[in-house]
Structures are given as C-alpha cells and as structure tokens.
# Entry
Amino acid sequence: MDENSRNVVEYYTNTYGEDGRLTRRPQARLEWTRTLELLRATLPAAPARVLDVGGGPGAYARALAADGHRVRLVDLVPSHVALAAAGSPPIDAAVGDARDLPEPTDLYDATLLLGPLYHLLHAPDRRQALREAARVTRPGGVVIAAAISRFAGAIDFASTARLTEVDVEMARALLVDGVNDPRSPFTPAYFHRAEELAAECESAGLTNVVIHGVEGPAWPAAEAAVHGPLAAPIFTAALELARLYSTEAALVGASAHLLAVARS
# Structure
C-alpha cells in the first residue's frame, strides 16, 4: 500500500466517520438524492450485477440491493468493508484497491466509482482506476464515476460563513493543480474540472461520456438557509434546479460533486 492509500485509510479509520455523512447537511442530502436518482435512471433493469468500488460503509450498495440488484462492494478501508458486511441487508464486500480490482473481467453490468477518483492524486492512477472499472464491466455496460468539483471547497466555506483569507489563498492555489493544501482538514485529494473528468474517462477507453452536476447550482443557498425559516422550500428549490441543470455545461462545475456516466 502506498503512502497516499495509507493516509486515506488512516483518515477514514481514525479521523472521519463516513457512516451517516449523506444525511448530515443539505449538500450531502442533495448529493444522496441526486446520485441515487441518476443511478436508478442509468443502471440496467434489476437484477443487474453491480460493482460498487470505494462504496464506503455501503449506503448506495444497500439502496441498490433493495432495488433488486446483485451488488458487490470493494473498498480500501477495512472498517468500511466491515460496516457494509454487517449492515442490513448485509453487502457482499471485500477490501481492495480501485487500481487493481480483485474481480474477473467482463463480470458486471455496471461499475460505480463514487469515491476513489478524488483520493487518487495523480492522473495515471485515476486513469488506471477507470480502466479497471471498464475491464470488469461487460462490453456496453455502464461505468459511473464521481469527482469533487475544483470549486467545491471555497463555495462551501463561503455559504457557511467559514471563508477566511487562508481559505481564499488555498482556493487560488487549487485552481492551478487541483490538489488540496495540506492545511486542509480533508485528506489529501484531487479536485476536478468537468472537462478534465470527461477527458480522463475517454482516455481510459470509456465512451458516450456525460458529466452531471450532482447538487446543482443552488446547493450553497440550501447550506446558507439550513437554520432559517426557509430551509425546507430552499432545499426543495435547490433539488429542482439540480434536476433541471444536471447536464448544463455552463453550470455543472458549480456543483460540489460531478458524476460521469459512460459506457465500457
């Protein structure tokens, strides 16, 4: 295991609890709702074989299993795998690296990479993870990969009244190379531009690539309003705009997360 992988395992084992993240904040609830909608709109009819790479404690895997899909989860973090396997319903789960999947070629109807890309700091590693996803997916199957937008952090800090001069400095540096500053509370990570995510997918041999903005352009308003009297209607409006502008090229980068939908 390389140093970056060890950092990721350390972060999710001892610093941050991924379990429950998707319900904690308006941004995360938008992420959950829209990602699940996009998965359900794109995946083959159940029962499809779905590989969830970097699936964490199994939130999406469990939802897809409840839809009737046959889901297997692979994650780098042993504690995530344990939570996925012990949950209800339990998920078939194993420890593994997105760049070297312990799975047969052409076995799956769809492969999800909803976490690994932003934890891989170098482009060759990200392309390798995408190539592995294509390898284990049958020809013509679906590969769906998530990334964090290059602009997400600064927008988040501004909308929640946490933006400092240091944050602006880090955001300016992030525009250049996409790698977050070591002073950031997040584990070392890579943040994408939408066109870059599409290019990486295509360079890995994927076709028919479409990039979605997951949370839409109004997610900062939902964050800013969370403790106010208009929290519910603003969240509803943000969700509606996320659906409306999902693939609008001029707006996708304003989302906190990007989602590439492609064919193997």
Remarks:
- The mean pLDDT is 96.
- The beta strands are 49-53, 70-75, 92-95, 108-113, 137-148, 207-213, 257-263.
- The longest strand covers residues 137-148.
